[in-house]
Amino acid sequence: MPKVIEKLRGRGVEVVVESGAGLGALIPDELYTAAGARIGDPWSANVVVKVAPPTSEEIGRLSSGSTLIGFLAPLTAKETTAALKAAGVTAFAMESVPRISRAQSMDALSSQANVAGYKAVLLAASESTRFFPMLTTAAGTVKPATALVLGVGVAGLQALATAKRLGARTTGYDVRPEVADQVRSLGAQWLDLGIEAVGEGGYARELTEAERAEQQKRLEEAITGFDIVITTANVPGRTAPTLVTAKAVEGMKPGSVVVDLAGESGGNCELTEPGRTVVKHDVTIASPLNLPATMPEHASELYSRNVSALLELMLDDTGAVAPNWDDEVLAKSCVTREVAN
């Protein structure tokens, strides 16, 4: 974003922006040049920043000894990591930034999850055949919709807050019991199924086979009572857990909606078709991919701040790249490292 470029320029960093890079977020090249950037070929720069993992052709354009920052999917795209290492590139994965207090400004997973959670509720509202809020009209009173959010990390909490603002009666569920207070603080109810799975780094651990079976049985019974179900459950590097079975969908009221935010890793709903919106048993199941990209202005603004905060951490007083490898944030977010001979 232009404001971030101004900040980096103040640190002595020269910024090159690829022509048209900001058009999807309604930022013309002129705004970048006005902020002090140069429009040109960025691939020969000391540091290259992007969003999605690089293609093999893009990796071939990187210089040996350069630095790459972006979402690199290190747990699932191991061939990308191997190619970056072979190319002599030091690469930092935004999804590997540790979730500690000092690194909150660099936590791109959280910033983009906020966007996704918000937009998921708007998508559910647009697909629903019912009002979200309670309405008292001359024709009678309309009851509020009931919304269940499965997986209450950043995206789930934002979904609960947004659904509450729209007037729905909200309920949250997660296998991590410590988030129950966060759910209640948003005015939502907590769905207690009696199953706990606390993992590392703020994520849930993978459930055992017996725990999964019991969870599905209890969820099937609970899900049928809701008009809206939004799922956000992901386990890093693994297939998304199935939370909404075909049987649960069949038991939901006609006109109900399921929004599955885990489509990119297989989906939390058994009937999900990633990237598509389908109707099964008179229930609409939407599984958008890269939902933050549908709100490019604010998604870009947040991601830009995350990246610049990480980049500034590795700059020395002259604006040169000089990472301190004793720094926990840099050490953990680095997935390939070019070591000088």
Plain-language structure description:
- The protein is α/β, with parallel strands linked by helices.
- It has 2 domains: 2-96 and 296-336, 3-Layer(aba) Sandwich (Rossmann fold), CATH 3.40.50; 114-293, Rossmann fold.
- Helix content is 33%, strand content 15%.
- It contains 11 helices and 15 strands.
- The strands form 4 sheets. A 7-stranded mixed sheet has the order 10-9-8-11-12-14-13. Strands 3-4-5-15 form a 4-stranded mixed sheet.
- The two termini are 36 Å apart.
- The mean pLDDT is 93.
Residue fraction in strands: 15-25%
Distance between the termini: 36 Å
CATH homologous superfamily label of the largest domain: NAD(P)-binding Rossmann-like Domain
Q: State the helical fraction.
A: 25-40%
Q: Which fold does the CATH topology of the largest domain refer to?
A: Rossmann fold
**How is the biggest beta sheet arranged?**
7 strands, mixed
Average pLDDT over all residues: 93
Which features characterize this protein?
341 residues, alpha/beta, Rossmann fold, 2 domains, 7-stranded mixed β-sheet, 4-stranded mixed β-sheet, 11 helices, 15% strand, elongated
